[in-house]
């Protein structure tokens, strides 16, 4: 179980960051398809996926993006926060077996609203940026 550090809003600084890493399996993709109801054959049907521009099954973009939720939670600690906004740009496909590191880094403090602006990224095991975005978090 992950342990979340106690961190008050006033303790945050630009550059603070957290990372989580996960290797995606075909079981992960199948379970996400069931939970999300996104059963597109690009994710589940190897024969169909071979006929696409990817040439093989790919991990759902939103499954990859979900790692950002974990990175944000680890960064924010307790008491918690609520996500106000998250933008995403899907830059490269993620394939089954890829190891993705999601990172959330504070790039701006917005003290009047007790918010943090964070750069959010996902990088594969080859160091390639596969997803980029920005999060706004409201700290308790």
Provide the CATH architecture of the domain at 9-24 and 60-139: Roll
Q: Determine the strand fraction and express it as a percent band.
A: 35-45%
Number of strands: 5
Describe the main β-sheet briefly. Answer: 5 strands, antiparallel
Helix/strand order: EHHHHEEEE
**Rg estimate, integer Å:** 16 Å
CATH superfamily name of the domain at 9-24 and 60-139? Answer: Hotdog Thioesterase
Low-confidence stretches: none
Give the quaternary arrangement of the chains: single chain
What does this structure look like?
The protein has 140 residues and is α+β, with helices and mostly antiparallel strands. The chain has a domain at 9-24 and 60-139: Hotdog Thioesterase (Thiol Ester Dehydrase, Chain A), CATH 3.10.129.10. The chain has helices at 26-36, 41-44, 46-50, 61-76, and strands at residues 17-23, 81-90, 99-110, 115-123, 129-139. Strands 1-3-4-5-2 form a 5-stranded antiparallel beta sheet. Strand 4 (115-123) and strand 5 (129-139) form a beta hairpin. It is elongated. The model has no long low-confidence stretch (mean pLDDT 95).
């Amino acid at each position: 179980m992950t342990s979340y550090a106690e961190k008050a809003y006033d303790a945050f600084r630009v550059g603070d960051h957290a990372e989580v890493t996960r290797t995606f399996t075909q079981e992960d993709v199948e379970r996400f398809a069931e939970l999300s109801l996104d059963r597109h054959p690009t994710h589940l049907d190897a024969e169909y996926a071979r006929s696409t521009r990817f040439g093989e099954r790919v991990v759902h973009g939103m499954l990859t993006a979900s790692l950002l939720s974990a990175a944000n939670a680890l960064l924010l600690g307790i008491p918690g926060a609520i996500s106000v906004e998250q933008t995403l740009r899907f830059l490269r496909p993620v394939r089954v077996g890829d190891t993705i590191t999601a990172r959330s880094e504070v790039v701006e403090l917005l003290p009047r609203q007790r918010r943090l602006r964070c750069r959010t990224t996902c990088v594969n095991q080859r160091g390639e940026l596969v997803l980029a975005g920005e999060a706004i978090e409201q700290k308790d």
